[in-house]
Design goal:
The protein is mostly helical. It has one domain: MFS general substrate transporter like domains (Growth Hormone, Chain: A, Up-down Bundle). Helix 1 packs parallel to helix 3 and helix 6 runs antiparallel to helix 11.
């Protein structure tokens, strides 16, 4: 009789494991493509100005400083509205907020078609940052509510690759539009590019509102048993530690928040340099027309995305994330500093260094967030994630403005890129030693609100 009971228990456990795997697989196929698409289109909206720059600065008579300031103003709005927008997600749910802000930035991107002066450029770039501000930290919290541990890291690395594939989209479509639609119906090619690349965001935002569930327990395509199994699995695999949420100190006095913000600032400085100036770098490296530059950008980002996923797969475990995040940052620092010496001499070396840089920034940011959510408790996670994101995104404002200003002052991008490479190297130090200080205080805490932050 005991043998029969044991066999029944084992069979039930096996069935539950199969149901759980099926539940996560179903969630990945239903959630990941939508969020991947929106993140890719978010980056299209924020960084296609780098490709439009090839025509726009001439047509509107913008200096490099004006371009850099406009590109960077996106991040001012992003910084100011990151925390408030993410708090709305806690109140109204992930589906409504993520889809709503996606629709808003999509319409703002459409409006970029009609930019005719520096002030209008500045205003729309600022508004674009306001509307995108809550999306990325919101998705960080959303993934934390849906996937445990290594599964979350792998899925998040795929999601984050959308930022790299955005440049593939910009490169392939932008080059064609700039070259073949310039002058169509009296509009310059860069205006058509803004319009054509913005419409899909509005469409996908509507799809997200109809299809995304807020939490596993609200997913109609999961059975009642699967919802229970997912909930139990997330509880058992929660990765959090005690912080100011447990001892009563205000979040702004939590050293973990500021150490993580410093590390993320360095990562984003390098990301902004690569995304906002890679088309210009490729043109100066000897790549010819718009389509050739577009194909080169697309190829570099596609290979960089593959490198991102590979690095995250190897370094995705909780014990490896910090070290592999630092290693990815080393790759980026090497890429930025070496580019200065090769982009006027070798097209092949320039292309390969951009691949290395995109892989390093993608993996660094992905691993950073999967590492960071373990350093904040449930009560501070919901505010801590957007706060870190907002503070660090100041780098997105400083970097393009600084590089543009240095270019106007010196006639070259070299000094600007060397400065950003040094910032990235500083980020490696923060990751290896500053974040290690936080890790030494680690003590697991089972906190339901970490699993269900929305």
């Amino acid at each position: 009789m005991e043998v029969v009971k044991q066999a029944c228990v084992e069979a039930s456990s096996s069935d539950d494991n199969a149901l759980l795997r099926k539940a996560y697989a179903s969630a990945q196929w239903r959630i990941l493509p939508i969020l991947f698409g929106l993140w890719m289109l978010a980056w299209v909206g924020r960084s296609n100005v780098a490709f439009a720059k090839l025509q726009m600065v001439v047509d509107l008579r913008f200096s490099e400083t004006v371009y850099g300031l406009g590109a960077g103003l996106f991040f001012v709005g992003y910084v100011l509205f990151g925390v408030p927008t993410t708090m709305l997600q806690k109140k109204f749910g992930a589906r409504a907020v993520l889809a709503g802000i996606a629709g808003a930035w999509g319409l703002t991107s459409v409006a970029m078609t009609f930019v005719n002066s520096a002030p209008s450029f500045y205003v729309l770039r600022f508004l674009l940052g306001v509307f995108e501000a809550g999306f990325y930290p919101g998705v960080v919290l959303y993934f934390n509510a849906w996937f445990p541990g290594k599964r979350r890291t792998r899925n998040f690395s795929i999601f984050h690759s959308g930022s790299l594939f955005s440049t593939v989209t910009i490169g392939l479509t932008g080059g064609f539009v700039l070259e073949h639609m310039n002058g169509l119906a009296g509009f310059q090619g860069w205006r058509w590019m803004f319009f054509a690349q913005a419409i899909p965001t509005v469409v996908l935002a509507c799809v997200a509102f109809m299809m995304l569930p807020d939490l596993p327990r609200g997913a109609r395509w999961l059975s009642a048993r699967q919802r229970t199994l997912v909930d139990d699995d997330l509880r058992q695999n929660a990765e959090t530690m005690g912080d100011t949420g447990e001892d009563g100190r205000p979040l702004l006095l939590n050293p973990a928040v500021w150490i993580l913000s410093a590390a993320y600032f360095c990562l984003l400085a390098a990301t902004a340099a690569l995304f906002f100036f890679s088309p210009t770098i490729l043109r100066e490296a000897g790549f010819g027309g718009y389509k050739e530059i577009g194909r080169a950008v697309a190829g570099a980002c596609a290979l960089g995305a593959v490198g991102n996923v590979l690095i995250c797969c190897v370094g995705g475990s909780a014990q490896r994330r910090r070290l592999f995040c630092a290693l990815a940052s080393v790759f980026t620092a090497v890429s930025l500093s070496a580019l200065v010496f090769v982009w006027h001499n070798s097209t092949i070396a320039t292309f390969l260094l951009l691949v290395l840089g995109f892989a390093g920034t993608g993996a660094g940011i992905t691993l950073f967030w999967q590492m960071s959510v373990g350093f904040l408790s449930g009560r501070s996670l919901v505010v801590g994630v957007p706060l870190i994101s907002s503070v660090a995104n100041v780098a997105g404002f400083v970097t393009p403005f600084l590089i543009g200003y240095v270019r106007d002052a010196t006639g070259t991008y070299a000094s600007g890129f060397i400065m950003i490479a040094c910032v990235q190297a500083l980020g490696v130090v923060v990751l290896l030693f500053g974040v290690q200080r936080i890790a030494k205080r680690r003590s697991p805490v089972d906190d339901v609100s970490v699993r269900c932050p929305t």
